[in-house]
Design a protein that fits this description.
Elements (H helix, E strand, L loop, with lengths): L20 H11 L25 E7 L7 H10 L4 E5 L3 H11 L5 E5 L7 E5 L3 E7 L8 E8 L2 E9 L12 H19 L8 E6 L7 H8 L3 E2 H5 L6 E6 L2 E5 L2 E5 L3 E8 L10 E7 H13 L1
Parallel strand pairs: 1-2, 7-8
Antiparallel strand pairs: 1-14, 2-4, 3-4, 5-6, 6-7, 8-12, 9-12, 10-11, 13-14
Helix pairs in contact: 2-3, 4-5
Length: 300
């Protein structure tokens, strides 16, 4: 894999997540071992450009947390994000009632999908959403949301995902569930990808419940996908959770991946106090426009 899609191979603080507060504490108590790989983390030399001088698409992914702890901060960020398309996880009817009236002037096109407990998701867009599909999970717990968006950068497929947390089917804590999670993530994603058109541009965004060295992420790298965040920021965590007073665990669970039809000009983790996750933002352009711009410069 090339440099832009190959993060420095290190396991960050703790690769565990659960979507219920009580379960989170149990899992962190069980799995609060820090795993560190042998490669030193470094910041990318790439300088982000969030306003490229050609047609582009700004994408945000944000697990807003179904507990709705600080909705005013979430709404304020989304309203000011200047995103073209927003992928949300852990939404439900209350989130829909809060977000739609507050944001419909900016994002007139939206789809909210209710699902059990923390499995709901939503997509907000400045552009019309076409061919909206809810993909039932073949493995794991929660569905994916697949849409087509006609953007200034062209027609793009967007797959919004929230992969299974490392707990048992009954919602309990066990070492075996933790150890099985990476394989489940890989199989979840493989099932979702069977519904996309590989010939067309695709962005996969959401809460993967794993960092860049997880099996689902590695499978995407092997298929030629690139990580937007890894090209511009290899340090910032996208999730944090307080286990005990004074003890906080964190990791990089939220990602924006893109197919070889696209290129990323900038990506970042935005510090927002509204959820246990941080939003991730990335700006995408068509690779054809990049090639055309290079040829134009070369021809001068």
């Amino acid at each position: 894999m090339d440099q832009r899609s190959s993060p420095c191979g290190s396991l960050t603080d703790v690769t565990v997540f659960c979507d219920n507060g009580v379960m989170r504490i149990g899992i962190m108590t069980l799995c609060a071992l820090v795993m560190i790989g042998g490669c030193r983390q470094i910041d990318s030399a790439c300088r982000p450009d969030f306003a490229p001088g050609r047609p582009h698409l700004s994408v945000v992914t944000y697990n807003v947390n179904y507990g709705v702890a600080q909705p005013e901060n979430v709404i304020r960020y989304l309203a000011d994000s200047n995103a073209s398309v927003i992928c949300l996880q852990e939404t439900h009817s209350r989130w829909e009632r809060l977000l739609k009236p507050a944001l419909e002037q900016i994002y007139p096109h939206s789809h909210f999908q209710e699902w059990q407990v923390a499995g709901g998701m939503a997509l907000l867009s400045r552009y019309e959403l076409g061919a909206v599909r809810v993909i039932q999970p073949e493995v794991g717990w929660w569905p994916a949301l697949l849409v087509e968006v006609e953007t200034p950068a062209g027609a793009i497929q967007i797959l919004n995902v929230h992969l299974k947390p490392p707990i048992t089917e009954r919602g309990g804590v066990s070492v075996s569930a933790y150890c099985r999670a990476p394989g489940i993530h890989r199989d979840e994603l493989a099932g979702f990808l069977r519904h996309v058109d590989p010939r067309r541009p695709l962005i996969i965004a959401g809460d993967f419940n794993e960092n860049e060295v997880g099996l689902a992420m590695r499978s995407l790298f092997d298929q030629g996908f690139a990580s937007a965040l890894s090209a511009y920021d290899r340090r910032s965590k996208t999730w944090r959770w307080k286990v005990w007073p004074g003890i906080v665990v964190n990791d990089r669970y939220d990602h924006i991946m893109y197919s070889d039809h696209l290129d990323c000009t900038g990506a970042e983790v935005v510090q927002v106090s509204g959820s246990d996750h941080m939003p991730v933002r990335a700006v995408m352009v068509s690779k054809e426009s990049v090639v055309a711009a290079m040829e134009s410069v070369g021809g001068k």
